[in-house]
Amino acid sequence: MLDSDIPTTEALTIEFKSDQKRLPDKDLVLAAVCLANTDGGLIYLGVEDDGQPTGLHPDHHDLNGLAALIANRTIPPLSVRTVMMESAGLKIARIEIPRSTRLVATSDGTLQRRRLLADGKPQCVPFLPHEFASRESDLRLSDYSALPVAGADLDTLDPAERHRLRQAIERYRGDRSLLGLDDAELDGALGLTRTESGQRVPTVAGLLLIGRESAIRAHLPTHEAAFQVLDGTEVRVNDFYRWPLVRLFERVEEQFLARVSERELQVGLFRVPVPNVEPRAFREALVNALTHRDYSRLGAVQTRWQTETLSISSPGGFVEGVSLDNLLVVEPRPRNPLLADAFKRIGLAERTGRGVDLIYQGLLRYGRPPPSYLRSDPSSVSVDLNCAEADLNFLKLVLEQENQLGTGLPIESLLVLAELRHARRLDTPETAKLLQRDSAYGRAVLERLVEAGLLQAHGVRKGRTYTLSAAVYRQLGSPLDYVRQAGFDPLQQEEMVKRYVREHGNIRRSDVIRLCGLSPQQATRLLKKLNNNGILEPHGEGKGTVYARGPNL
């Protein structure tokens, strides 16, 4: 039996069910179906809606029976894991529901999914037929963009837009073999049409790329894009479009470029432009939004430019297998493979599928923070590009390294250098987490940067940490920071903490961070070591913990 804390509130993946009066089997099965058809999650049986444990009904003490009940009354059978918990002396059943890769219904044919209300509370709602395509697209079980458009014929395609597409292939250096094809061959090569019952009909991708605007409005009313410029609370630009995608891309790019400002940096004999937003990063973010959005769902691709942030958002969350924790390393998984492939062949998208690397590089090399995807949720993906002043010293450092290498600095190197400008010191586990890789990979990246003279290593084995080198700090115009960061070895750090406690009676983790110039994780490890050696004793819990004299101090 597991004795553990229970979440205090319900969420998209957390459901509480009271069992005082024995929860009806139908309600339990429906709750499982609801979670399985969304992101999976946990059912706590024996907990009230307010999070108060009240215990399991005696009929539900057989956990194997609960799992069998759910499997027998769902189609296809849903396999769940059950765990008995105890809270305040009461038995609670935790039922772990996997995210299903197929639509799951109750045995009587009821389909539901879970969503969050405006106040953040979860709710189970009917799973309607028109939402099936969106779900299958999220799970990459079908390609919505490759489907034929019901009721559309070749007259819905615009010859002028096909000509624009050909021009785009030349302008963006796309697949030039496409230029020698006639119209029907071009449409077939890009999947813009498919043959149904002996007739060529437009696909969703075809209508989106070269359809007439009136046809797009009639057959794909979910398609919309907006470009907004905000000055504080005042709206300067607020344009909405339902245009074919090549024309739409060119228009939004034109609006973007009209507002890009540049300064220049002298590097050797060359003047390097320094834009407030790197155009290539913007293009990749916009292309990602247009190609990966959920076209079966209402909503607009939003480009919103505020004072120091350019945000791009699109309807539809990350597809199955993609998350904030693996965004840098996961293999490309487009929601609309046919549309994404067409964009690559036209030349509008990065052909390797790693456009996210270009977005990161477009910010990091200028000394700006990395792009933030933190506002993304199950219903949309959002990326914020920071438009703050560039760090010219950092950019100069990057440019000099790139000149020596003859190529751009890898995204991993940029991430580590950028992080060390703020965290000041990194170890291997922290680097692995930053790069979304394992420790061996993180260590290899760090050691390569040491060999390049960009980092300096301190200590050995598991205690080995890394700072920017003295040469880098000098180039960044802050040599004193190097002395502060590299000047203390682990023994000196311990002595500094001991002296602080002798003089002040106790110390907090935040004090250690400031005193020794450590990251939060490094400060935690130092305090734990001193505690294990009997030098310090912790008092309190969490952020309120203070460390006082131990018996060996």
Strand-helix topology:
Blueprint: E1 2-3, E2 14-17, H1 25-36, E3 41-45, H2 63-72, E4 74-75, E5 81-87, E6 90-97, E7 105-106, E8 112-116, E9 122-126, H3 132-138, H4 159-171, H5 183-190, E10 193-196, E11 199-202, H6 204-210, H7 213-219, E12 225-231, E13 234-241, H8 245-257, E14 262-267, E15 270-275, H9 279-292, E16 301-305, E17 309-315, H10 337-346, H11 355-364, E18 380-386, H12 392-405, H13 411-423, E19 426-427, H14 428-435, H15 439-451, E20 455-458, E21 465-468, H16 470-475, H17 479-486, H18 490-504, E22 506-507, H19 509-516, H20 520-532, E23 536-539, E24 546-549
Describe, in short, the structure shown:
The protein has 20 helices and 24 strands. The chain has 553 residues and is α+β, with helices and mostly antiparallel strands.
Protein model, in words:
The chain has about 550 residues and is of the alpha+beta class. The chain contains 20 helices and 24 strands. It has a five-stranded mixed β-sheet with strand order 1-5-6-3-2. Strands 13-12-16-17-18 form a five-stranded mixed β-sheet, covered by helices on one side. A hairpin with a 2-residue loop joins strand 12 (about 225-230) and strand 13 (about 235-240). Helix 8 packs antiparallel against helix 9 and helix 9 (about 280-290) runs antiparallel to helix 11 (about 355-365). The longest helix has 15 residues, at about 490-505.
